[in-house]
Amino acid sequence: AERRTQLQAVVERVRHDHGLTPDVAVSAPCPPLDADEDPAHRVEQLESELEIMGPVNPLALEEYQALHERHEFLQGQLDDIRATRRELSKVIASIDEEIVSIFAGAFADVAVNFEQLFQTLFPGGQGSIQLTAPEDLLETGIEISARPEGKNVRKLSLLSGGERTLTALAFLFAVFRSRPSPFYVMDEVEAALDDVNLHRFLSLVEEFRADAQLVLVSHQKRTMEAADCLYGVSMKPGGSSKVVSERVTSPAAEVA
Predict the structure, then answer these.
(1) The CATH homologous superfamily of the domain defined by 100-179
(2) What is the pLDDT of residue 249?
(3) 67 partner at 20 to 30 Å CA-CA among 86, 171, 213, 221?
């Protein structure tokens, strides 16, 4: 009975101090002991180390398993993100390649048409467009050089307001001619033009109207005279806006 009581006390001590069952404690490997080392001193040393480590967490295995599963889940998501990133990088590279190809072709066409249209709007003048960074078509800008006849300038800032307007229109119509559209909208683009330059602008409008519809917002009488249909908006004091439309008949049609 005394031995049983002592054994039970040892078992309880193992459970309390080390958090182990007797089976686990017996099967646990014995720490190596030097030949000249005192077993009692070694026990005290190990007990001191255990005390420093603190009490054994009985839920450690469960917590480890939960964290391990969480880690595996996050690792799987991270792998998916990396795979998606690689696929997106391939798509972006493909899109960039297509953008470069389309832009290069469009720029080449616009450059040719700009030179032609500039000479139409500025007889005897020279105009061109260049890339600011031809080695990087995804980040490049476009620089316009314009030299009307009789002027030794190329920067747009040195041109008059009407000349800058015509240069911008030459570029705009160069884009229209390079990549045609069935519909164009322009808002008072000819407001700064004198009679001579306005006539040149309307000549371009006449050329493009054969294959497309042009909507021009304008206060110029000559521009209105060139239109097929006029729309006006008026408002009486304190009243609401009123839209008035009128189809313009050309002199040739009236004679016919």
Answers:
(1) P-loop containing nucleotide triphosphate hydrolases (3.40.50.300)
(2) 66
(3) 86
